[in-house]
Specification:
This protein is mainly beta. Helices cover 14% and strands 36% of the residues. An eight-stranded antiparallel β-sheet has the order 38-37-35-43-42-41-40-39. A hairpin with a 5-residue loop joins strand 31 and strand 32. It is globular, with a radius of gyration of 30 Å. Residues 141-152, 227-235, 370-388, 402-407, 490-497 and 526-548 have low confidence and may be disordered.
């Protein structure tokens, strides 16, 4: 018994010893550190776990871990705030804060409290004269039932913007029978309809099938009766993706109808008028007729009656589809004739969703009857469901990837076509992705309206096979996609905290003054109240407790590069053209930068909904990114700016980009700012917004990253400089000191 007790005691002591060793030296000791912020400011722990005004949270960390607290004052429309007190474990450590950073060792009792006070704008806050000279947009404050600004014109899907010289208005037509108008592409009127609406409609956006004979005839052919009740089941019978052109005294309005949302039983129609403003007011249009129709049905079964015996039996049938979907028309008038592109897919069953182009008659705007074949030799007909139907000339196709599904971003739709006389190219703007999540806009070009359309690398948009590319993420020069400028938020609760998603359905216009613009829809996020209003201020007031996405109209200015490609301005249009008179010195500093990468994972083929930004510090002789800091990379001279042919070249994360800077109005921050847009050598788009924030954590992290590469003497020298400005350093102070350190490091590297 004694031996057993001795053995048992020894074993117990052994296990206890092992457990103590594990507990003290092996087990990760995690504690929940309490962080709280009061006033108008933001505290982050190691560039994550953000806490804002009057908020608190706990962050897990290991005992003894060194934490970096970044204290970021907030700026609002009317005031600027700075740090008043930072208290750690009951001790005021405000005087120990360097460059709005404080380092502390974590323990289970660690409590952090930050207090902010109202102050003045720091000296040197504005680093570029061009930004301060940008005029504030003149936005009319309409009544509650009207909407503010092109960046917030509510519920406009598949926009088509057209300038009517007779009424001197820009009209924006959208799906679901919606039209708005504007004098300046900024302030838009309240919504109205362009077609009559039946009294018994589920909503005022459902189109009456008895309005036009061509629609009525198509409706009967596809199983709709004149007196059929309008119900949720048939709510897809709304005018989709309108397109309007003016030719020789006549306005031609094209629109599509689709019987169901998951098949290609669709058609494109044309109506006309000689007075656009009057037609919108009276809802009176002339029926030009059916342009083209496609048909398809899913696999299934039906009960049929035998003609001879009268017996009923079950008949099964296979899925059958035309090789096109008659939706999303876009028409272009050229010296060689009138052409229409169309196509797109809802991503169900076997609908291809390809884009086609057909030639129209210059006499009536319908399919060209005099020539049954197009220039490619394809027979074109409005007949469908048989071998006689040919869709036209294929100009673009969606991704050919495994397991095509609605959510993988491989879908293709929402296209537009324009001709730029200065470059001599036709440009195909098109949308990949899904409206609810990952729409993105791309562009390709051709010397003929019928193609072939090739992208930035020369790959044919209509042929994945020959290019060796099987997924859509490698196609087209991307112009815009979902994004979030993380560091450029105003610190309050607004849509900038979430960003924009699903930028798609482009429409391109050129003004009489020679300016190019791109209208598009995007998903903005606001709380839905009984009265929906828009704008960042209203979003903050609503606090975004319950948010729902809805598509809204945005207008962006387009610039053309020296090699003939369009690039889009990151900020929406403010009513005045973007200024390109930017000095090279204005590019030095911190940029909130978004790279629109391949938009997808090569294995899962899932598209990215919103591209988030990283802070990039551009200095005279070096470029430093968040990735450089995270990986501890040494400085490289690759990143220095060079200028040629009106654009700048800069290397970011080992990739060379051609960027075009401009001064514009920043709607998120309600002030002038400097932005850039451009692309890499392989056609990857990039946007940047100059970060004029007082001192965001990543910027001070950049400073410390460079300082760590210096010798002890330099570190001691700059420790004294930090003490003089640590209370509320300006962005200019940080940039200047970082630039000095870069000079020191590079000079040591070259010795």
């Amino acid at each position: 018994m004694k031996k057993f007790l001795a053995f048992f005691t020894a074993t117990l002591l052994l296990f206890a010893g092992v457990f103590l060793i594990y507990w003290k030296y092996v087990r990760p000791s995690e504690y929940m550190v309490f962080v709280e912020s009061f006033g108008h400011g933001v505290v982050t722990v190691d560039s994550k776990n953000t806490v804002g005004t009057d908020e608190k949270y706990r962050v897990a960390c290991e005992n003894g871990q060194e934490l970096t607290l970044n204290i970021n004052p907030e700026r609002t429309d009317s005031a600027y705030y700075n740090l008043k007190k930072l208290i750690v474990n009951g001790i005021d450590v405000t005087d120990d804060v360097n460059m709005l950073q404080y380092k502390v060792t974590a323990n289970k009792k660690l409590n952090v409290l930050a207090f902010f006070k109202k102050g003045k704008r720091p000296e040197g806050y504005k680093t570029e004269e061009a930004a301060s000279n940008v005029d504030k947009p003149s936005i009319d404050r309409y009544a509650d039932n009207k909407y503010i600004g092109s960046y917030a014109a509510y519920d406009i899907k598949d926009p088509c913007i057209f300038y009517d010289e007779k009424s001197e208005y820009y009209y924006c037509f959208g799906s679901d029978n919606v039209v708005i108008k504007s004098k300046d592409l900024l302030n838009w009127s309240s919504r109205t309809t362009y077609f009559p609406t039946p009294e018994d409609a589920v909503s005022n956006t459902v189109m009456s099938f008895s309005a036009f004979d061509s629609v009525k005839s198509w409706g009967k052919e596809h199983g709709y009766g004149e007196d059929e009740t309008y119900s949720d089941e048939n709510q897809d019978r709304t005018p989709l993706s309108p397109e309007i052109i003016y030719r020789k005294g006549t306005y031609y309005l094209y629109f599509s109808l689709s019987k169901t949302a998951d098949a290609n039983e669709s058609a494109i129609f044309c109506v006309t008028t000689d007075d656009l403003a009057k037609a919108i007011e009276t809802k009176e249009w002339k029926d030009a007729g059916l342009v083209i129709s496609t048909c398809g049905r899913h696999a299934g079964s039906e009960i049929v009656e035998d003609e001879t015996s009268g017996e009923k039996r079950k008949h099964s049938f296979k899925a059958s589809y035309d090789n096109a979907n008659a939706v999303h028309p876009a028409v272009i008038s050229t010296e060689n004739g009138l052409f229409m592109i169309y196509g797109g897919s809802y991503g169900r069953e076997k609908i291809s969703g390809e884009l086609y182009i057909v030639e129209l008659s210059t006499k009536n705007g319908l399919l060209k009857a005099a020539s049954p074949v197009n220039s490619k030799g394809d027979v074109v007909s409005t007949l469908h469901g048989s071998s006689r139907f040919q869709a036209g000339t294929l100009i673009a196709e969606p991704g050919r990837i495994p397991a095509l599904s609605k959510n993988d971003g491989s879908l293709l739709s929402g296209a537009d076509i324009v001709y730029n006389k200065e470059t001599g190219y036709y440009y195909l703007f098109l949308t990949y992705g899904v409206q609810e999540s990952n729409y993105n806009i791309r562009v390709a070009r051709a010397k003929s309206p019928e193609g072939p359309y090739t992208d930035f690398s020369g790959a044919d948009m209509a042929d994945f096979g020959k290019s060796g590319r099987n997924n859509q993420y490698t196609k087209g020069l991307m112009l815009a996609a979902g994004y979030n400028f993380l560091s450029s938020s105003n610190g309050g609760v607004s849509y900038t905290d979430i960003g924009r998603a699903s930028i798609g359905s482009p429409c391109i216009i050129k003004t009489s003054g020679g300016k190019w613009f791109m209208g598009s829809q995007s998903q903005l996020y606001y709380k839905l109240d009984s009265v929906i209003t828009t704008g960042a201020a209203q979003a903050q007031a609503n606090a975004l407790t319950d948010v729902y996405p809805f598509p809204s109209l945005e207008v962006r200015e387009l610039k053309w590069t020296t090699d003939g490609w369009p690039v889009a301005c990151p900020e929406t249009y403010s009513g005045t053209a973007a200024s390109t008179k930017i000095k090279q010195s204005a590019l030095y500093g911190n940029w909130d930068t978004i790279v629109f990468d391949s938009m997808g994972d090569s294995e899962s083929y899932k598209a990215v909904e919103r591209n988030t930004s990283q802070t990039v510090t551009i200095l005279e002789k070096a470029v430093i990114t968040e990735k450089d800091i995270a990986k501890g990379r040494k400085l490289s001279t690759e990143g220095t700016l060079t200028k040629a042919d009106g654009c700048y070249t800069v290397v970011i994360d080992s990739v060379k980009y051609n960027i075009y800077p401009m001064a514009v109005w920043d709607f998120e921050l309600d002030e002038g700012t400097v932005v850039f847009t451009g692309y890499s050598d392989d056609g990857t788009a990039i946007w940047g917004k100059k970060n004029f924030s007082d001192a965001l954590g990543i910027n001070t992290t950049t400073f410390y990253h460079v300082l760590s590469m210096c010798d002890e003497a330099v570190q001691s020298e700059y420790a004294e400089k930090m003490q003089k400005i640590s209370g509320n350093p300006s962005q200019t102070d940080i940039d200047a000191m970082t630039g000095e350190l870069v000079e020191t490091v590079l000079s040591q590297m070259t010795k």
